[in-house]
Give the backbone structure.
Amino acid sequence: MILHETQADRRTEARIVEAVATKHGFGTAFCSKAYPVDSMFMRGRRPVCFVEARHRNNSKDKYPTFMWSLQKFIHAKQFAEVLPTVLLVEWEEGIFSHRINGDHYEIGYVNRTGTTGRTSADNEPVIEIPTDKFKQEIPREYEW
C-alpha cells in the first residue's frame, strides 16, 4: 500500500469519484485514509457501491496494463462480496471504470526507488489489469 498519499492525491481522487457519482445520480461518502477503499457511492444514507480511485498522468494506451496494489485488490474483492466495487482511473482521455469481480490477473512486483521519489517501503506486489478491461465513464472534454 502506498505510504505517501498526499492531501492533493486525496483531492484528485475525490474529484474523480464526485464526477462519476454525479453522472450516475449518486451521492458520495469518503472513508478515512486508513480504510481499505477510498469512498462509496450512496443513495441517501445507504452505500450502493465501494469505490477506489486513481489518477495517471499518461494516456490509457501508454501501457497495456494498469498496475494496482495486490493488497488493495484483495480488499476490493472481499468488499465486492458485499456490494458492487469499482476501480476508477483517470487517464489523459478521461475517467474509466473497472468493476471488481472474480477475474484473475497477472501478478507483478513494483520497485519504487530511484527517480520516482518513493522509497523502498513502497515496494509491493501488484496485479496487472489489462487497460482494455476499463470502460470509459467520462471523456476528457467533460468539465469537472
